[in-house]
Amino acid sequence: MTELSTILVDDVVLGLWRALSRRDWDALKTFLAPDCLYVDMPVPALSARGPEDIVKRLKMGLEPLAGYENHDGLLVSNGSDVIYEHSETWTFATGEKGVLRFVTVHKVVDGKVTVWKDYWDMNSLVSFAPPNHFENLANADTSWIFDASALV
């Protein structure tokens, strides 16, 4: 892989995360392949496939927040595979605030993300999220669910 194509892969991943940090859902979709697989590794049975369903999945957790910010960290790429260590600050409307630490694995093919796997600790979120956060998730639209358990 040439240095130029490595830069492209890195730019795709960082562009995706910058769009997500702005919660710019339309821009985010432009970084995703039509069959992109998104997996929150703590719960692979609650995955999403394709830009529309991935955005539905992300909105469920992030759209109600009063504040959301992604913080860049280490990014390592090896051809089409990218590992991105980063953190997110979540601020709830009721004032609770906390930082979630992530390691994300992406696969980028032809300038689009085809795989997005987030590794994080569910207990970190539980430690600072208000109780109604999880109650609200239980009542959310789940039309996006794709069970990726057998694929990861």
Automatic annotation (TrEMBL):
Q: Which SUPFAM superfamilies does the annotation name?
A: NTF2-like
Q: InterPro entries attached here?
A: NTF2-like_dom_sf (IPR032710), SnoaL-like (IPR037401)
Q: Which domain of life is it from?
A: Bacteria
- One GO MF term: hydrolase activity
Q: Where is the SnoaL-like domain?
A: 16-115
- Keywords from the UniProt entry: Hydrolase
Answer whether the UniProt record assigns the keyword Membrane to this protein.
no
Any idea what this protein is called?
Limonene-1,2-epoxide hydrolase catalytic domain-containing superfamily protein
Organism lineage: Bacteria, Bacillati, Actinomycetota, Actinomycetes, Mycobacteriales
